[in-house]
Write a structure and sequence with these properties.
Chains A, B, C, D: Its cofactor is FAD. Chains A, B, C, D: One of its GO terms (cellular component) is cytoplasm. Chains A, B, C, D: One of its GO terms (molecular function) is flavin adenine dinucleotide binding. Chains A, B, C, D: InterPro entries: Acyl-CoA_dehydrogenase, Acyl-CoA_Oxase/DH_mid-dom_sf, AcylCo_DH-like_C, AcylCo_DH/oxidase_C, AcylCoA_DH/ox_N, AcylCoA_DH/ox_N_sf, AcylCoA_DH/oxidase_NM_dom_sf. 4 copies of one chain form a homotetramer. Chain A has about 450 residues and is of the alpha+beta class. Chain A has 4 domains: about 5-115, Acyl-CoA dehydrogenase/oxidase, N-terminal domain (Butyryl-Coa Dehydrogenase, subunit A, domain 1), CATH 1.10.540.10; about 150-265, Butyryl-CoA Dehydrogenase, subunit A, domain 2; about 275-415, Butyryl-CoA Dehydrogenase, subunit A, domain 3, CATH 1.20.140.10; about 420-450, no CATH class. Chain A has 16 helices and 7 strands. Chain A has helices spanning about 5, 15-20, 25-40, 45-55, 60-75, 95-105, 110, 120-130, 130-145, 265-275, 275-300, 315-350, 350-375, 390-400, 405-415, 420-440; strands at about 150, 170, 175-185, 195-200, 215-220, 225-230, 245-255. In chain A, strand 2 and strand 3 (about 175-185) form a beta hairpin. In chain A, helix 13 (about 350-375) runs antiparallel to helix 14. The model of chain A has no long low-confidence stretch (mean pLDDT about 95). Chains in contact: A-B, A-C, A-D, B-C, B-D, C-D. At the B-C interface, helix 2, helix 4, helix 11, helix 12 and helix 13 of B face helix 2, helix 4, helix 11, helix 12 and helix 13 of C.
């Protein structure tokens, strides 16, 4: 049976041929399984989730607990962890991208499969840098879905998108680390299911090398002195029950053995964290945009909505809009999949550019798609009648998550500027050859002022 | 004393010279008064308002009641009502635009001055079309700030942006009107300060003229059978304490004398409502964008935020962004002010195009400005730390308020298409003259295929 | 007879009411005259002009000579020169804007009225800074249409958008100035009708004040040592018969009395040149865009073009496009007219921001309009069948004329940044008042981290 | 030796890993060869080409003849013909895309390798549909570079983007076809190297099936009655020496055996022509954009250009611009390569959507990149000092070649609309399941009005 016919399934409806060709039978099965899971267990349950947290915002609702049990039992846990980790269920980044897009269709679906942020980045980090004892303590329960973690880096008092500025103080004694400072973002302490914060702070502010000043440590969520000041809303959404918090660390004491990799090695870890975890948001966003697109399509044939006697989808302006939406999503999928494949092929470091490209292009492009979908719903489009406002907000959030896109764009631009001299040298060589050719063809060389 | 020196006041910092030249001393004083009011009474009180409605979402908070009393005492009520109404406090549309921009800086500041939507459109409608008895009953208390009104037109079951589709049934008997149907939007019945709905429905569905089928009527907010199903959120915001609702009219009975203007005359009224009320949102939005701009400027010099050692405002990319924001707001202000002035000069009907131009261009352009401001705040930009998310949401809402912008764009485009034949005739005349000139200059006329 | 009925003429079809209200009867007559001139003498003659320069690129064609005579006889010369000059025909900048838009409809129509670039900027400069002898020698013949001038500033070897970099050497002796250097742009020496270059160069490179190093001088076009290396094409167009050149100044000797205002005073002059001349391009561009728009409209009803059985203008996507084009042009007209009015009201210096706003926004916005018009013509749209490619090219050129738009944007942004501290102070005052209000209302003040 | 090290060559600097993995050693060698060819023979010779056609616009210049001989000798001819043709040199569409991008760097480089439009589409068409005799007569000499062909379809008198409108009359007698009509575009008859036109006309206008009315025929370029009226310029460029023409067919008589495939079968052929040929422009455009990008990079470090004392590339706004340009080009390359791969994998028909996606997205996105590059050159950017104006014009041309992009967008949109009902059915299934889940979780189902 050809791999093509194996893929005669809606899960692969928009999978590019080159990706199909790379999917192994094992992965094909997983992707189908994820598809069935999301279609039958998650999408229809969206409003159940909402109803269950309506009056109890900071508690994971029963449906999440149930679905996590069930997904784990079906072997759908931790699919994100790339196959070079021994703890991995075995998918490549590319294969996982296909899963992640599908998961993305429902905001909380990844959580049912233990593939949600920041869990994925955290698990990857712990799998990469922890000692065996630490793994036993945190990695195993996280992968088993018995614990839940947050990641805390952003600070209100400095420009932490440039992480060398991070100032939260960590005083390391013989036995413990004493932490003082303020942090923004990181999931809510309010949620009792949260167990640990993975925290980045400054333990050696006088170190002449600014890349050796910081330390990463695991802070149990209910350590005395750690206080959540308020929940941060995102465009007005409280993002319950996980949420985002503002925190004060007031003489928080943590055992020294909670340090990951060693004091002063936070940047080494941060580098490692910049791999797949950084584009999981983008992968999921493709799925969110597909949902927005489907909602737009359905509106186009809604029989009750006939301005000037025609279905919305019979207006050729909307036909053009639908085409633009379709093509934008598909081109952004190519960008994400190429980034995943680049990591598989050449490692996270070589994939740095492709990751940044995803991180910058994808949310910006998809925001327009989602916004257009909202607009096609007219007055209803901004209300809770569809999930579009939440989808838009998620995409908007990705533009600032892990640093605003200008910071990433700068990094890409600075790297590119380094190649300019090489190009200039090549241009000078063209000019030299041009002068030779002029002799051959008996022409007077022209000079164009100010141009190589 | 020259009118210029009268205007040496921050309220006029961005007022174009041609507008300054048209402001009368009386208006100059009012604008200054509004400026002081918003600067000293409203902006500093934004978080007081939030705190007071935190646990009591559907009740106007004490600060609103207090400020409304105070503003009324200072003669700041109803400034929006144009000077051709006898009930008007005397400002032109242009003069009021200058007030409205300032009011717009705080979402609820217009309410303190009885200049908020939908009150402004409703008061204008009632002033224009009511009988003296009706005015006494509704217009006077509304203008005195003793009553509060909603406007209800949009329906979930039809494309009501094309208002001939409106289907909510009104059966007119000898003494009363019996209403059945479903409506979207219109302020919340939950809020006990709300007194009346101005409702558009279909009273004569078989009338051969589709413009004579509809009737406008005043429905007391607590009439039996009128039920709010839920509050509609806008991009997740509940917009409390005024809100937007979904309604069922289930055999709602209203006295026949509540009909405005007469049965079947709703389109006449709707036409009249399409005047200034339609761009009050745009006027206010200019003020909202100015606030976003100021927030961006302040971020640019925030001493705690120095990525790569420089203030954000020292990056020339941000210098360019600030310039773009500044220029966009200023050009959109010109569009709004020109629309207001056109109505003053030639009436609402002649201003139809300029109003549509505002309605379409302004929110789209300002959304980009506000979005940029959010982005300059990085991770904080989407949170409740600044009013930016609410400002963005308001601008986004204006794109669907009174119909999605595509509907307005279509109207403008269709009107323009009517001018095409006249242009073609002119082009043909050019060709005729060209042929004459060819003779004079002894040239062979060229023909360009398919072009007039 | 009311001024309104005076303006019941197609010349005022899109004039905003506030502008109409400011036009004096004298100006109204001039504008109508310009309208008739362009409609009857210029538009029909476009292809005559092309035919006459077809084989004789660098000579003003007979039709130009004839029309200039005729326009002068009709009192249509030099309308651009603002009414505060004694040589002015008497229009304000605002009134002239209305003329310039109409002139702009045909690329060379302004030349028939002696209102073309760079003549307008040059005449203004000479009128402002020349001695009576100099005026007699250059200003009078230029205004009489008996001479023709170029302006030369840009250099290939430095970033001359920052004019302090200008390096073309001027050695000033007792009697003459010896010039050596290379220049880009400035009209073609090839055209024998060209008489003088107004040249900016560096006469005192060691002066500690970089704003006192440069001198402006008049160089007769055929002075020995001044050589045009080649004609510069603009997007492939040779822009004949005026063109743009590359120049070598090789020991060019000019009498010292040709210096304008005095040695080292070029920046004073440059400042003065930054007035109306800087936005004449924008004014004319509005007219060019109107022509593109009319061409689009005519295509919409072209009976031979019926894809899928409908006129192009019956597709609602094109209806929306037409609306967008219409609204964009009209909003850009407001920006230009406001800049002109600001100069009238408060002088060129006060108008600096409004001029920059025009210079940046107008060509960028109109390029999209013109591009859309080309696209509506499909395969024909890029060919010589319509003037659209030249219109587009003119608009594109304006983005780099007088410096690329990024340079202007930077200037606007830097000026704005200076206002940030004032805004911050105001914000701090809001916070202070908020804290007072908290006391009054018995609330705990909230702190939002990192925000004033 | 791994395929990776085989590709340690600048030709693969931006090749995505998934493409690298698919390139066969044979193709890798060809791509390198093309790279060397373009770098050493074409780029340095750009101005030689220009000089040689300067005074002899309608004759292929000597350098083209020489390079074509040489390229053929090196086995660089006809690389575009996909490997499923027996005449093919053996590359897949994907492999050829890598070549085409490189060729695209110089406008005429593809011609040196017999890979230029419309030759590639024509050769493919002839290879697919000709009889052996016809192949001998036209296909062989075209592939040998001994003949040259044009393609003629567009008409001035109808909307030929909807090809059923094509009206050029073909009267088929027993022995010959008599042609009357007017055509736009198709390469210049002026160029004596042009041998044949492949013409689409209407031979059976009364046929009830509009898809069976048209016939494709080969017309020798110098058949009596076939007259070129003028050369069509593209944005002012004459595109010499190949050019584009306007034609009159006045009783042109062609032997009946020149009909391809048979009378009335033009649409069958047109379908076949819609394969790879349709995106060769896009492939080449990637190379053009890379050149624009390199020119921008070089400007960034141009030592003579230092506005306000800094290299242009030291302004962070330009750093961001460079990053945007880089990322845009790279994402558009992914779109093109995916389309090529889709055709390899599933055939031209299955690739229809991916081809349209390329055709619409690529030129639009790259126009912005090229425009930005021009702008970074300031006043020089629009002149002949760089190839940027021609690169921009080529990209602009691709937006109308083979029909304006709106036509393609419509097609994509209409195809997508057909999927809406399936999505709606799926949505209804979600609702059904939701209602079940409500029972399970004891919740009241919510209804959201107007939404499935």
């Amino acid at each position: 049976m050809s791999s093509e016919s194996l893929m005669d399934h809606p899960a692969f409806a928009r999978t590019p041929p080159w990706v199909k060709a790379k999917l192994r039978p094992f992965a094909i099965e997983k992707i189908k399984q994820v598809y069935e899971w999301v279609e039958t267990e998650c999408i229809p349950a969206e409003r159940i989730f909402k109803a269950q947290i309506k009056d109890n915002r900071w508690k994971n609702p029963p449906i999440i607990h149930e679905l996590r049990q069930k997904a784990k039992a079906q072997g759908l846990f931790n699919l994100f962890l790339p196959n070079h980790f021994k703890e991995s269920p075995g998918l490549t980044n590319l294969e996982y991208s296909c899963c992640a897009e599908i998961m993305g269709k429902v905001y909380w679906a990844p959580q049912t499969m233990n593939c949600h942020a920041p869990e994925t980045g955290n698990i990857e980090l712990l799998a990469k840098y922890c000692s065996p004892e630490q793994k036993k303590k945190w990695l195993e329960p996280l992968m088993n879905g018995e614990m839940s973690s947050a990641y805390s880096m952003t600070e209100p008092d400095v420009a932490s998108s440039d992480a060398t500025n991070i100032a939260c103080s960590m005083k390391i004694t013989d036995t413990e680390v004493i932490i003082n400072g303020r942090k923004l973002y990181a999931n809510c302490q309010y949620n009792e299911d949260l167990n640990i914060y993975i925290l980045m702070g400054c333990s050696d502010p006088e170190n002449p090398n600014p890349w050796n000043r910081h330390t990463t440590i695991v802070v149990p969520a209910r350590t005395p002195g750690l206080k959540q000041v308020r929940n941060l809303t995102i465009m007005g959404f409280d993002c319950a029950p996980e949420g985002h918090g503002e925190y004060i660390y007031d003489n928080v004491r943590v055992p020294k053995e909670n340090i990951i990799l060693g004091p002063g090695r936070a940047f080494e870890i941060a580098q490692g964290r910049l791999g797949p975890g950084r584009i999981h948001h983008c992968m999921r966003l493709i799925g969110q945009a597909e949902r927005a697109y489907e909602l737009a399509l359905v509106r186009c044939i809604e029989p009750r909505k006939k301005p000037r006697g025609k279905l919305i989808g019979q207006f050729d302006s909307n036909i053009e809009r639908i085409a633009d939406m379709r093509m934008t999503i598909d081109s952004m999928r190519l960008v994400v999949l190429n980034a995943a494949d680049t990591m598989d092929y050449a490692g996270n470091k070589a994939g740095k550019y492709a990751i940044a490209q995803s991180k910058i292009l994808v949310p910006n492009a998809l925001l327009k798609v989602i916004d257009e979908a909202m607009q096609m719903y007219g007055g209803q489009g901004l209300t809770q009648h569809t999930p579009l406002p939440e989808i838009w907000t998620y995409a908007r959030f990705v533009r600032v998550a892990d640093g605003p896109d200008a910071a990433h764009r700068h990094q890409v631009g600075r790297d590119q500027m380094k190649t300019a001299q090489g190009v200039r040298t090549r241009f000078e060589e063209y000019t030299r050859k041009y002068q030779e050719l002029c002799k051959k063809w008996e022409l007077e060389p022209e000079e164009f002022w100010g141009i190589v």
